[in-house]
Amino acid sequence: MITYTKARTKDELEQILQLQQKNLFENLSEDERITQGFVTVKHSFEILKKMNDSCKHTIAVYNDKVVGFALSMTKEFSNDIPILQPMFIEISKSVTDDNYITMGQICIDKEYRGLGIFRGLYKFMKTEICASRFSSIITEIDIKNKRSLKAHEAIGFQKIKDYKSGDKIWRLVKLQV
Description:
Layout: E1 3-6, H1 10-22, H2 30-36, H3 45-54, E2 58-62, E3 65-73, H4 85-94, E4 100-108, H5 117-130, E5 136-142, H6 146-154, E6 158-165, E7 168-176
Parallel strand pairs: 4-5
Antiparallel strand pairs: 1-2, 2-3, 3-4, 5-7, 6-7
């Protein structure tokens, strides 16, 4: 049985990083990127832990193994991850409600996809992480990541805008909590 919880231990954070590593854009074939999706940002343990200390990450666990995660990132980290700085600039230009949490990355282990974990992670994040602190969840998706775009749209994320940063086009999306 898959359970959803808040990341609490060093081992869970390390498992998040291992799952992230397996799904980084540069570690997947072009076919895998197209059919399975990918993640872009590579976090250090230190920044991942700081983010978790500020607002717990959501994890899906099966037999003590992290099989999915949704990272929580508050505005205080807007300058800590260079590739995400443009996202925070675009949010400040486009979003009037300042009471949001940024979902810093979501990933499901390939062996556990298609089981509803994506929905489960966001449901837990909305009810257990956000409900008392935030009115919305905002994230961005590389527009080449069609699987992620479809999944976010299917659970109710609304497009705020597309914007270009470097050689990528990003879609900024928002979900009311």
